[in-house]
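Hi everyone,

Forwarding the result from last night's run.
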Amino acid sequence: MLRTHTCGELNINHINESVTLSGWVQKSRDLGGMTFVDLRDRYGITQLVFNMDTDAGLCKQARKLGREFVIKATGKVAERSNKNLKIPTGEIEIIVSELEILNTSEVPPFTIEDETDGGEDLRMKFRYLDLRRNPIKNNMALRHKMAIETRSYLDSQGFFEIETPFLIKSTPEGARDFVVPSRMNEGQFYALPQSPQTFKQLLMVAGYDRYFQIVRCFRDEDLRADRQPEFTQIDCEMAFVTQDDVLSTFEGMTKHLFKKVKGIGIDYDFPRMSYDDAMRLYGSDKPDIRFGMQFVELNELAQGKGFGVFDDAELVVGINAEGCAEYSRKQLDQLTDFVKKPQIGAKGLVYVKYNLDGTVKSSVDKFFDENALKAWAEKFGAKPGDLMLVLAGDANKTRKALNELRLEMGKQLGLRDPKVFKPLWVVDFPLLEWDEETNRFYAMHHPFTSPKPEDVPLLENDPGKVRANAYDLVINGVEIGGGSIRIHNKGLQKKMFEILGFSDEEAQNQFGFLMNAFEYGAPPHGGIALGFDRLTALFGGSDSIRDFIAFPKNNAGRDMMIDSPSTISQEQLDELRLKILN
């Protein structure tokens, strides 16, 4: 046997047992007459001991071991004199009697430690080495646990796990597709699925009323910390359900994961917030409700006083940062610089300090006297010691900018604790959004999202006001997933395609298979897709999903390890009848 135990298994109860361990050399320490080697595998670290007095040849062999050598060591378990209680095996060591080098190793390009000296690009290039580090290993273990518990819960609720195709038909709307040329069908292409949306609806037509899949999806879009060109969803669909049924089921799944994976019990119903309220109070459709600082609108109090920035604005709105009146001028200038960043886009920042002595100090006190500013404070619900921060301008842009400022203040004040979780449902999204450039409506979610039944008449004369039977699960300001009750009526689906600018021929060409299926008894149905990578990263306390994916890609969509994407041979291009244009 190459090992009788793992490197994380042995303890004081194994004293005097003869064992064989195999693994990688973490580090070696030569103390003259003794050599100590830390042997590592997936399960932990065990200390090996070589004694020059008892076996000089074996000790000399041990001194030649380099970092990451793969070895097999046999010996007896002994109690350590200098115990390391920080690790499970820290009370014992192995007095080695036999040593075999299974493989040597080059010197690694970065230290394989919890705190490594390797930069992200270097670690991604040598990802197979990075995966040996405890933080990444723990992330992979968390991901595994999340998948197991997801399957366990959904199985208990009567769901079938059913696979759907990866080579499908390219359809409009949504993000850009990755396309795959077909050698056997000249001039034609498959697309990789952005989600299994149409297939899971077809499964409902087929009578499989509870479907799920932990599935890979693909989107050709610009990347960031929480996006990858290939990602994983917990994709689900249910038939004969209402919105409340879907929310109840997947609220239950989320609570199950918190309990089983994090040991956190959530004994309350997740709050529900309308899209309109989320935008009005937080400037975001994924509000972080771990802390307050809800938006307060000041148009009535702030306009008409001769201050042009406010008078010319569509919206004057602010937040109250409790206990921050002591912020220095330097700190306030830094906040002003923050909101003026191009990606945030505010033109400036107005502050009002409500000092502990009851006086008020503001950057606009030339235009507003103390009584006026105290009226602001009353509107904010501010008390002495608080700091009010106000932005003004175009309503949508100002709300988005104030959302960023609110999150920054939450971060500065330590209110965004990664160990605290506050989930909620955001509901009643707009069904459609208008695009000024193309002068047409687009589906805010996808073309199969059902409108609220009471809003259906508005499709004829005011489609922009129609609310969707759609919902998002948000946790700590992160959109974890979203879904909707689908359109199952062919007439309503045809109307939706008309509003989105599809001719009957285009709709039939793109979605005819689904429309035809609806002719054969489509049940009412709805579902949700949860971002598995994002959910795992959230449970792991990280903003980035990369370290929770075994082999991620960088911001340019490149796999640094295998150097992909890459060119293909002229022979392959010829087989596919493709020509590369310069």
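The mean pLDDT is 94.

Cheers,
N.
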